[in-house]
Amino acid sequence: MTALSIVVPCFNEQECIAALYQRLTKAAKSAAGGDYEIVLVNDGSRDRTWPMMKDLAAADPRLVAINLSRNHGHQLALTAGLDLCRGDTILIIDADLQDPPELLPAMIDTMQREGADVVYGLRTARAGETRFKRATAHAFYRMLARATDVDIPVDAGDFRLISRRALDALLAMPEQARFIRGMVAWIGFRQVPLPYNRDERFAGTTKYPLRKMIRFALDALTGFSSAPLKIASHAGLWLSIGSVLLVIYILAGWLSGRAIPGWTSLMLVVVAIGAVQMFVLAMMGEYIGRLYSQSKQRPLYIVQEIEGGGIGQPPSHE
Ligand code: UDP
Ligand code: MG
Protein backbone atom coordinates (compact mmCIF):
# COMPACT_ATOMS: atom_id res chain seq x y z
CA MET A 1 0.00 0.00 0.00
CA THR A 2 1.06 3.51 -0.77
CA ALA A 3 0.43 6.31 1.69
CA LEU A 4 -0.92 8.77 -0.85
CA SER A 5 -2.53 8.51 -4.28
CA ILE A 6 -3.27 11.51 -6.46
CA VAL A 7 -5.89 10.79 -9.10
CA VAL A 8 -6.29 13.08 -12.11
CA PRO A 9 -8.70 12.70 -15.06
CA CYS A 10 -7.21 14.28 -18.20
CA PHE A 11 -8.97 15.10 -21.45
CA ASN A 12 -7.01 17.04 -24.09
CA GLU A 13 -4.73 18.58 -21.46
CA GLN A 14 -1.40 18.53 -23.31
CA GLU A 15 -0.60 22.12 -22.29
CA CYS A 16 -1.13 21.27 -18.63
CA ILE A 17 0.53 17.87 -18.22
CA ALA A 18 4.12 19.02 -17.66
CA ALA A 19 3.26 21.71 -15.13
CA LEU A 20 0.72 19.41 -13.51
CA TYR A 21 3.30 16.66 -13.07
CA GLN A 22 5.84 19.06 -11.57
CA ARG A 23 3.49 20.70 -9.11
CA LEU A 24 1.88 17.42 -8.06
CA THR A 25 5.27 15.79 -7.51
CA LYS A 26 6.44 18.69 -5.39
CA ALA A 27 3.28 18.73 -3.30
CA ALA A 28 3.28 14.94 -2.89
CA LYS A 29 6.95 14.90 -1.82
CA SER A 30 6.40 17.54 0.80
CA ALA A 31 3.31 15.77 2.11
CA ALA A 32 4.25 12.07 1.90
CA GLY A 33 7.99 11.92 1.35
CA GLY A 34 8.61 9.24 -1.26
CA ASP A 35 5.56 7.18 -0.45
CA TYR A 36 3.04 8.29 -3.05
CA GLU A 37 1.74 7.59 -6.53
CA ILE A 38 0.29 9.88 -9.16
CA VAL A 39 -2.44 8.27 -11.24
CA LEU A 40 -3.14 10.07 -14.51
CA VAL A 41 -6.16 8.87 -16.48
CA ASN A 42 -6.29 9.72 -20.15
CA ASP A 43 -9.95 10.04 -21.07
CA GLY A 44 -9.68 9.49 -24.82
CA SER A 45 -7.74 12.67 -25.56
CA ARG A 46 -7.21 13.57 -29.20
CA ASP A 47 -4.04 15.59 -28.60
CA ARG A 48 -0.63 14.61 -27.24
CA THR A 49 -1.84 13.98 -23.68
CA TRP A 50 -1.37 10.19 -23.81
CA PRO A 51 2.14 10.08 -25.31
CA MET A 52 3.22 12.70 -22.79
CA MET A 53 1.74 10.70 -19.92
CA LYS A 54 3.40 7.53 -21.16
CA ASP A 55 6.81 9.21 -21.33
CA LEU A 56 6.42 10.51 -17.79
CA ALA A 57 5.42 7.06 -16.55
CA ALA A 58 8.47 5.51 -18.21
CA ALA A 59 10.76 7.94 -16.42
CA ASP A 60 9.10 7.97 -13.00
CA PRO A 61 8.03 4.76 -11.24
CA ARG A 62 5.69 6.77 -9.03
CA LEU A 63 3.58 7.76 -11.99
CA VAL A 64 0.81 5.48 -13.22
CA ALA A 65 -0.70 6.32 -16.60
CA ILE A 66 -4.06 4.81 -17.53
CA ASN A 67 -5.43 5.05 -21.05
CA LEU A 68 -9.18 4.71 -21.52
CA SER A 69 -10.43 3.31 -24.83
CA ARG A 70 -12.36 6.48 -25.67
CA ASN A 71 -13.78 9.58 -24.04
CA HIS A 72 -15.97 8.30 -21.22
CA GLY A 73 -16.46 11.63 -19.49
CA HIS A 74 -14.91 13.26 -16.44
CA GLN A 75 -16.78 11.29 -13.77
CA LEU A 76 -16.07 7.90 -15.31
CA ALA A 77 -12.42 8.71 -16.00
CA LEU A 78 -12.11 9.69 -12.36
CA THR A 79 -13.81 6.43 -11.33
CA ALA A 80 -11.27 4.44 -13.37
CA GLY A 81 -8.41 6.15 -11.53
CA LEU A 82 -10.06 5.66 -8.14
CA ASP A 83 -10.64 1.97 -8.88
CA LEU A 84 -7.00 1.37 -9.70
CA CYS A 85 -5.21 3.57 -7.18
CA ARG A 86 -3.64 1.95 -4.13
CA GLY A 87 -3.22 4.77 -1.64
CA ASP A 88 -4.29 4.97 1.99
CA THR A 89 -5.33 8.54 1.41
CA ILE A 90 -6.48 9.75 -1.97
CA LEU A 91 -6.43 13.22 -3.48
CA ILE A 92 -8.81 13.95 -6.37
CA ILE A 93 -7.78 16.91 -8.47
CA ASP A 94 -8.41 18.35 -11.96
CA ALA A 95 -5.66 18.41 -14.57
CA ASP A 96 -5.99 22.13 -15.30
CA LEU A 97 -4.47 23.29 -11.98
CA GLN A 98 -7.53 25.34 -11.10
CA ASP A 99 -7.31 23.67 -7.74
CA PRO A 100 -3.87 24.29 -6.24
CA PRO A 101 -1.93 21.08 -5.39
CA GLU A 102 -0.05 23.16 -2.81
CA LEU A 103 -3.11 22.85 -0.61
CA LEU A 104 -2.34 19.17 -0.05
CA PRO A 105 -0.37 19.52 3.23
CA ALA A 106 -3.14 21.70 4.66
CA MET A 107 -5.73 19.13 3.61
CA ILE A 108 -3.82 16.26 5.22
CA ASP A 109 -3.38 18.37 8.31
CA THR A 110 -7.11 19.10 8.48
CA MET A 111 -7.94 15.45 7.97
CA GLN A 112 -5.75 14.38 10.88
CA ARG A 113 -6.69 17.22 13.19
CA GLU A 114 -10.43 16.84 12.63
CA GLY A 115 -10.38 13.06 12.41
CA ALA A 116 -12.20 13.44 9.10
CA ASP A 117 -12.60 10.94 6.28
CA VAL A 118 -13.20 13.58 3.65
CA VAL A 119 -11.72 17.06 3.32
CA TYR A 120 -13.35 18.89 0.43
CA GLY A 121 -12.24 22.10 -1.17
CA LEU A 122 -14.80 24.86 -0.85
CA ARG A 123 -14.51 27.44 -3.61
CA THR A 124 -14.61 30.89 -2.11
CA ALA A 125 -13.60 32.66 -5.32
CA ARG A 126 -13.51 31.48 -8.90
CA ALA A 127 -11.00 33.33 -11.02
CA GLY A 128 -10.98 33.43 -14.79
CA GLU A 129 -14.31 31.74 -15.36
CA THR A 130 -17.02 33.27 -17.48
CA ARG A 131 -19.97 34.96 -15.82
CA PHE A 132 -22.17 32.34 -17.42
CA LYS A 133 -20.20 29.50 -15.85
CA ARG A 134 -20.19 31.15 -12.44
CA ALA A 135 -23.90 31.98 -12.56
CA THR A 136 -24.95 28.52 -13.74
CA ALA A 137 -22.70 26.82 -11.18
CA HIS A 138 -24.11 29.04 -8.43
CA ALA A 139 -27.72 28.30 -9.40
CA PHE A 140 -27.00 24.61 -9.95
CA TYR A 141 -25.54 23.96 -6.51
CA ARG A 142 -28.39 25.77 -4.79
CA MET A 143 -31.09 24.04 -6.80
CA LEU A 144 -29.45 20.72 -6.07
CA ALA A 145 -29.29 21.44 -2.35
CA ARG A 146 -33.05 22.07 -2.34
CA ALA A 147 -34.05 19.11 -4.46
CA THR A 148 -31.99 16.37 -2.82
CA ASP A 149 -32.18 14.70 0.54
CA VAL A 150 -28.41 14.16 0.71
CA ASP A 151 -26.39 17.11 2.04
CA ILE A 152 -24.27 17.79 -1.03
CA PRO A 153 -21.98 20.69 -0.14
CA VAL A 154 -22.68 23.89 -2.04
CA ASP A 155 -19.83 25.27 -4.22
CA ALA A 156 -17.55 22.27 -3.86
CA GLY A 157 -16.12 20.39 -6.82
CA ASP A 158 -14.39 17.05 -6.92
CA PHE A 159 -11.21 18.51 -5.42
CA ARG A 160 -10.99 16.58 -2.19
CA LEU A 161 -8.91 14.32 0.01
CA ILE A 162 -10.56 11.08 1.05
CA SER A 163 -9.56 8.19 3.27
CA ARG A 164 -9.27 4.62 2.03
CA ARG A 165 -12.37 3.47 3.87
CA ALA A 166 -14.40 6.34 2.41
CA LEU A 167 -13.10 5.45 -1.05
CA ASP A 168 -13.99 1.79 -0.58
CA ALA A 169 -17.51 2.82 0.40
CA LEU A 170 -17.68 5.02 -2.70
CA LEU A 171 -16.49 2.23 -4.96
CA ALA A 172 -19.14 -0.07 -3.51
CA MET A 173 -21.77 2.06 -5.22
CA PRO A 174 -22.36 0.37 -8.57
CA GLU A 175 -24.54 2.98 -10.27
CA GLN A 176 -23.87 3.87 -13.87
CA ALA A 177 -24.66 7.57 -13.89
CA ARG A 178 -22.03 8.76 -11.48
CA PHE A 179 -22.14 12.15 -9.81
CA ILE A 180 -19.12 11.66 -7.61
CA ARG A 181 -19.35 14.69 -5.36
CA GLY A 182 -22.92 13.66 -4.49
CA MET A 183 -21.91 10.06 -3.94
CA VAL A 184 -19.11 11.10 -1.60
CA ALA A 185 -21.63 13.15 0.38
CA TRP A 186 -24.01 10.18 0.43
CA ILE A 187 -21.53 7.79 2.08
CA GLY A 188 -21.36 9.87 5.25
CA PHE A 189 -18.44 9.78 7.72
CA ARG A 190 -16.98 13.04 8.95
CA GLN A 191 -16.56 15.45 6.05
CA VAL A 192 -15.03 18.88 6.58
CA PRO A 193 -14.58 21.81 4.18
CA LEU A 194 -11.34 23.64 3.45
CA PRO A 195 -11.94 27.03 1.83
CA TYR A 196 -9.68 28.03 -1.06
CA ASN A 197 -9.55 30.33 -4.03
CA ARG A 198 -10.10 28.65 -7.35
CA ASP A 199 -7.49 29.77 -9.86
CA GLU A 200 -7.73 30.31 -13.52
CA ARG A 201 -7.17 27.34 -15.81
CA PHE A 202 -3.38 26.94 -16.26
CA ALA A 203 -3.72 26.54 -20.03
CA GLY A 204 -6.20 25.43 -22.65
CA THR A 205 -9.96 25.82 -22.59
CA THR A 206 -12.68 24.23 -20.52
CA LYS A 207 -13.47 20.61 -21.34
CA TYR A 208 -17.02 21.11 -20.11
CA PRO A 209 -19.05 22.58 -22.95
CA LEU A 210 -22.71 23.34 -22.27
CA ARG A 211 -23.75 19.91 -23.54
CA LYS A 212 -21.62 18.15 -20.93
CA MET A 213 -22.71 20.58 -18.22
CA ILE A 214 -26.38 19.75 -18.86
CA ARG A 215 -25.67 16.01 -18.86
CA PHE A 216 -23.78 16.44 -15.58
CA ALA A 217 -26.60 18.45 -13.99
CA LEU A 218 -29.15 15.85 -15.06
CA ASP A 219 -27.07 13.03 -13.60
CA ALA A 220 -26.85 14.95 -10.35
CA LEU A 221 -30.55 15.70 -10.17
CA THR A 222 -31.86 12.32 -11.22
CA GLY A 223 -29.26 10.46 -9.19
CA PHE A 224 -30.04 12.16 -5.93
CA SER A 225 -33.60 13.35 -6.13
CA SER A 226 -36.96 12.14 -7.29
CA ALA A 227 -38.32 15.70 -7.23
CA PRO A 228 -39.11 15.74 -10.97
CA LEU A 229 -41.14 12.53 -10.58
CA LYS A 230 -43.00 13.97 -7.63
CA ILE A 231 -44.36 16.75 -9.81
CA ALA A 232 -46.97 14.32 -11.12
CA SER A 233 -48.07 13.45 -7.59
CA HIS A 234 -48.47 17.09 -6.68
CA ALA A 235 -50.26 17.97 -9.88
CA GLY A 236 -52.54 14.97 -9.33
CA LEU A 237 -53.39 16.08 -5.81
CA TRP A 238 -54.24 19.66 -6.76
CA LEU A 239 -56.16 18.62 -9.85
CA SER A 240 -58.24 16.18 -7.82
CA ILE A 241 -59.15 18.92 -5.35
CA GLY A 242 -59.89 21.25 -8.26
CA SER A 243 -62.07 18.68 -9.97
CA VAL A 244 -64.22 18.21 -6.87
CA LEU A 245 -64.96 21.96 -6.95
CA LEU A 246 -65.61 21.74 -10.66
CA VAL A 247 -68.05 18.87 -10.18
CA ILE A 248 -69.97 20.92 -7.61
CA TYR A 249 -70.11 23.82 -10.07
CA ILE A 250 -71.31 21.56 -12.91
CA LEU A 251 -74.01 19.95 -10.78
CA ALA A 252 -75.16 23.37 -9.55
CA GLY A 253 -75.55 24.45 -13.19
CA TRP A 254 -77.55 21.35 -13.93
CA LEU A 255 -79.85 21.80 -10.89
CA SER A 256 -80.55 25.44 -11.70
CA GLY A 257 -81.49 24.35 -15.21
CA ARG A 258 -79.19 26.93 -16.83
CA ALA A 259 -76.92 24.34 -18.41
CA ILE A 260 -77.59 23.48 -22.05
CA PRO A 261 -78.47 19.80 -22.53
CA GLY A 262 -75.45 17.56 -22.78
CA TRP A 263 -73.02 19.98 -21.11
CA THR A 264 -73.32 18.40 -17.67
CA SER A 265 -72.61 14.84 -18.70
CA LEU A 266 -69.80 15.91 -21.04
CA MET A 267 -68.08 18.01 -18.38
CA LEU A 268 -68.41 15.31 -15.74
CA VAL A 269 -66.74 12.78 -18.01
CA VAL A 270 -63.89 15.17 -18.91
CA VAL A 271 -63.20 16.08 -15.29
CA ALA A 272 -63.44 12.52 -14.02
CA ILE A 273 -61.13 11.13 -16.68
CA GLY A 274 -58.62 13.92 -16.13
CA ALA A 275 -58.52 13.34 -12.39
CA VAL A 276 -58.28 9.57 -12.73
CA GLN A 277 -55.45 9.85 -15.24
CA MET A 278 -53.46 12.16 -13.02
CA PHE A 279 -54.01 9.87 -10.08
CA VAL A 280 -52.84 6.82 -12.01
CA LEU A 281 -49.81 8.70 -13.31
CA ALA A 282 -48.90 9.73 -9.79
CA MET A 283 -49.18 6.15 -8.58
CA MET A 284 -46.95 4.97 -11.39
CA GLY A 285 -44.51 7.76 -10.60
CA GLU A 286 -44.19 6.49 -7.05
CA TYR A 287 -43.44 2.98 -8.27
CA ILE A 288 -41.01 4.15 -10.91
CA GLY A 289 -39.23 6.22 -8.26
CA ARG A 290 -38.82 3.11 -6.12
CA LEU A 291 -37.78 1.00 -9.09
CA TYR A 292 -35.19 3.59 -9.94
CA SER A 293 -33.72 3.77 -6.48
CA GLN A 294 -33.65 -0.03 -6.32
CA SER A 295 -31.98 -0.27 -9.71
CA LYS A 296 -29.09 1.90 -8.51
CA GLN A 297 -28.16 -1.01 -6.22
CA ARG A 298 -26.44 1.19 -3.72
CA PRO A 299 -25.33 -0.42 -0.48
CA LEU A 300 -28.09 -0.06 2.09
CA TYR A 301 -25.86 1.46 4.75
CA ILE A 302 -22.21 1.96 5.53
CA VAL A 303 -20.79 1.06 8.92
CA GLN A 304 -18.29 3.55 10.28
CA GLU A 305 -16.93 1.41 13.13
CA ILE A 306 -17.86 -1.41 15.45
CA GLU A 307 -16.68 -1.61 19.04
CA GLY A 308 -16.36 -4.83 21.00
CA GLY A 309 -17.29 -8.41 20.21
CA GLY A 310 -14.12 -8.86 18.24
CA ILE A 311 -15.91 -8.25 14.94
CA GLY A 312 -14.61 -4.74 14.27
CA GLN A 313 -11.01 -5.83 13.68
CA PRO A 314 -9.77 -5.65 10.13
CA PRO A 315 -8.98 -9.09 8.68
CA SER A 316 -5.34 -10.05 9.07
CA HIS A 317 -3.34 -10.87 5.99
CA GLU A 318 -0.63 -13.20 7.26
N1 UDP B 1 -12.25 15.89 -18.16
C1 UDP B 1 -12.24 14.55 -18.53
N2 UDP B 1 -13.12 14.11 -19.47
C2 UDP B 1 -14.04 14.94 -20.07
C3 UDP B 1 -14.07 16.30 -19.66
C4 UDP B 1 -13.18 16.74 -18.70
O1 UDP B 1 -11.44 13.76 -18.02
O2 UDP B 1 -14.79 14.47 -20.92
C5 UDP B 1 -11.32 16.36 -17.14
C6 UDP B 1 -10.46 17.54 -17.54
O3 UDP B 1 -9.30 17.14 -18.20
C7 UDP B 1 -10.17 18.18 -16.20
C8 UDP B 1 -11.43 17.90 -15.39
O4 UDP B 1 -12.08 16.83 -16.05
O5 UDP B 1 -9.08 17.55 -15.54
C9 UDP B 1 -12.35 19.09 -15.27
O6 UDP B 1 -12.57 19.65 -16.56
P1 UDP B 1 -12.50 21.22 -16.80
O7 UDP B 1 -11.41 21.81 -15.99
O8 UDP B 1 -12.43 21.47 -18.28
O9 UDP B 1 -13.91 21.68 -16.25
P2 UDP B 1 -14.25 23.13 -15.63
O10 UDP B 1 -13.22 23.41 -14.59
O11 UDP B 1 -14.20 24.08 -16.77
O12 UDP B 1 -15.62 22.92 -15.07
MG1 MG C 1 -11.27 23.33 -14.79
UniProtKB/TrEMBL annotation:
Compartment(s) where it occurs, according to its Swiss-Prot or TrEMBL record: Membrane
Domain of life, per lineage: Bacteria
Keyword flag Flavoprotein: no
InterPro entries in alphabetical order: Glyco_trans_2-like (IPR001173), Glycosyltransferase_2 (IPR050256), Nucleotide-diphossugar_trans (IPR029044)
Record flagged with keyword Isomerase: no
Annotated Glycosyltransferase 2-like domain residues: 5-170
Membrane topology listed for this record: Multi-pass membrane protein
Entry's transmembrane regions: 235-254, 266-288
Keywords: Glycosyltransferase, Membrane, Transferase, Transmembrane, Transmembrane helix
CDD domains named among the record's database cross-references: DPM1_like_bac
PANTHER family reported in the protein's UniProt record: PROPHAGE BACTOPRENOL GLUCOSYL TRANSFERASE HOMOLOG (PTHR48090:SF1), UNDECAPRENYL-PHOSPHATE 4-DEOXY-4-FORMAMIDO-L-ARABINOSE TRANSFERASE-RELATED (PTHR48090)
Listed name of the protein: Glycosyltransferase family 2 protein
Lineage: Bacteria, Pseudomonadati, Pseudomonadota, Alphaproteobacteria, Sphingomonadales
